[in-house]
Structures are given as C-alpha cells and as structure tokens.
Amino acid sequence: MDTSANEATGDRSLVISFVVVAYNEQHHIRRCVEAIEAQEGLATHEVIVVDDGSTDATADLVREMQDRHDSIRLIQQTNRGRGAARAVGVGVAEGDLIAMVDADICLPRTWLTTCLASIEEYDVVCGTAVPDGDVTYLYNTFGLTALGAPAAITIPGSNGLYRRRVFEHVMFDEQLRNGEDIDINHKLLDRGYRLACIPGLQVEHRERKSLVRSVGWLYQSGRGATRQLFRYRQIRLPDIAFGGALAVVATSWLARSRSPWIARLLMPAYLLATSERHVHGRFVASGPARYRSRYIGAVVVNAVLIAAYFAGRTVGVVDFCLHVGQRNETLVTSVREASKTSEDSRSVFAHADEVATESAPEKHRSAPDRPALHDRPVDLAGDDEDGTGESSG
C-alpha cells in the first residue's frame, strides 16, 4: 500500500481503496489505473484490480504496472459478473473510503479532491460518465457531442466514492451479473444514506463495443430492467417507454384488418420517435449539415438498439410470469405434501390407538361397574379409612 501522504486530503491518516472491476479490458486498464495514480491529493491508498475471468491480457498488464506501483493488488477469479466482482473488492479493501471505478473509466485529475470536498455532507458521491453506457456505440461511431446527462440512478457503477461504514449494512448482490448498481442504490436509500452526483464532475467513459455487442447488451439490460421493475415497483421513464411500445403493438394488432399498412408502420414510427428523444437527451442536436446527417444516422441505428431493449423487456416479462408460475406450483405442491403428511399422521395415530386398545389387559377392558362418586356415602366428620363410610374410633 502506497503511504506517500499528501496534505491536500486534509487527513494524513485517511486510507482510500480504489476497487477497479475489469473483464477483458486490455485496451483500457492501463489508462484507468494510471489516472488513479495521478490523482491530485492522493495520500495513503491502494488500488485493487478485480479481474473477473478475463481471457485477454488484462491481468498481464496489471502485473506490469505492479512493478512500478506497490499500491496495486491483483485479484483474479472465474467470471461471476459485476456484482460478485464488486463484492470481492469491497471485502478485501482496507480503506476508510472505498472508490468504485470501472476499468473503462478514466478519472480526471481532480476527481478525488472534488469527491473528498463533498463526502463530508454525504455517504456516497460520484461524477457523471460521458458518454453514458447505453450510447457509447453511437458516440464512437457517429462522433456526436455528448451532453453529459446524469445517469438514471444517483450512483452509477462507473464511479463512486463510498464511506466504508455503508458496507456494514449493505453489499453488492453477488448473484447479479448486471444491474448491481441499481440494486445497491435502492438498498442505500432504504437505509437512509445520503447520495449525491456532483454537478460538473465528469469522468471519461472509453468503452468500445461493436453493434452486435451493443444489441446484446441492450437486450440483457432490458431483461434486467423488467426484473428491477417487478422487484422495486418503481416506474421510471424507460418503463413508460416500454408501456407505450406494448400499446402500439396492441393498436397495430387491432388495426391489422382495416388498415394493414398503418398497422405495419406504427411500430417503426414509434421506435424512431423514441430513439430521437433518447439521442436528443444524450447529445447536442444542432450543428452544421454534416453533423445533422450524423445525428440522423445515430437516431436510425439507435432505433435498432431500442428494439433490442424492448425485446429484452418482453422476455423479462415472460421470465417473471414463469417464475411466478413455478413459485405457485411449488407452493401448491408444498400444501399438498403438508396435507398428505397430516393425513398420514392421523392414520398413524388412529392405528396406534387401535393397537393400544387391542393390547390393553383384560381386567382394564372388562372392569366391573363401580358406583359413581356422587352415589357413594360421604363422611363429613372424618376420613373414610376403611372404605365403609364410617369414621374410625
């Protein structure tokens, strides 16, 4: 662990742990770690790189950097997803503050000092990733100017500075391969922790995905978004957009006989309109004619990505219905088994009573009738020792 104290932190005893989650990030891991080591006001710290089963040269590059920085630790594990990787990193971190950073993020030099200035009033703070994760393909392909719009959640997975104490009560869900950042946001808010995205603090998002990978990522994001809707029961703007898509599908089906052409055009028109609103919220829309043509191209391609997202949402609904059906079936089976067990128990007890009756001594089964207690004489003067009803002496 690097112990080169710097008075800019305001506390020489403060230890900061940077947890970097990486999966096949050989093109970005070096810049990410070097940007961390170059932070202004960096005092006692450690950089924990959790390699989540990379199949490229990510781990080798981290080992090379370890020769120059004794603050770097490398943890390798089989691919388990982001939730498990983040939880592992937090579990081994020794810092009073824990910074979560994705491997495709490049922090500005002032990220730490800016976060430290705000963490006094909050429990978790972060900056805004530019561009946002759902439009990186459009940003890289069409060269649009990003607006730096805040993420849909307060603290995204891309970057965040946490007080260590929050992890005494909440933790990243190791079962979630994605959506773990949304999950922990809900947990933090439920616990009453204070979260803030610092205005004006932007981090560079250098992710590069092909169109095919982007389609697959949006599809999986759609499935995860449906899961989150049913789990947390909080309606967000993407949920409303998906509801509109379902309404368009229903309208197209009803209009298929009267106006087949209109029925066929409704969904493409809705996708393009939704795409334009999405792109408009992420990038500058106005500019020279050449820029406008690139902007229109981005809208068209983004419509394909949104279609993949809606497909994922639909599959997510099916997944939820199947899960509910299986749960109900399991419940019915459990009730039936409990009922059967109860019937078997009654049968056993009934059989035991029969056996006890049959094996009872003959004198107990054919005992002569005796007068009832109220038919027997009562001695009010003393004890009836000899059973005759008369007092002795």
Largest sheet, described in full? 8 strands, mixed
What is the CATH superfamily classification of the largest domain? Spore Coat Polysaccharide Biosynthesis Protein SpsA, Chain A
| Separation of the first and last Cα atoms | 102 Å
| Contiguous runs where pLDDT drops below 50 for at least 5 residues | 3-10, 363-393
Proportion of residues in helical segments: 40-55%
How does the overall form come out from the CA principal axes?
Answer: globular
Output the helix-strand order. Answer: EHEHEHEEHEHEHEHHHHH
Judging by the overall fold, what is the CATH architecture of the largest domain?
Answer: Alpha-Beta Complex
Q: Do you know the CATH topology of the largest domain?
A: Spore Coat Polysaccharide Biosynthesis Protein SpsA, Chain A
Q: What portion of residues belong to β-strands?
A: 5-15%
Total helical elements: 11
What's the CATH class label of the largest domain?
Alpha Beta
Spatial strand sequence of the major β-sheet: 3-2-1-4-7-6-8-5
What is the average of the pLDDT values? 85
Structural class designation: alpha/beta
The radius of gyration computed from the alpha-carbon positions, rounded to a whole number of angstroms, is 35 Å
Count structural domains: 2
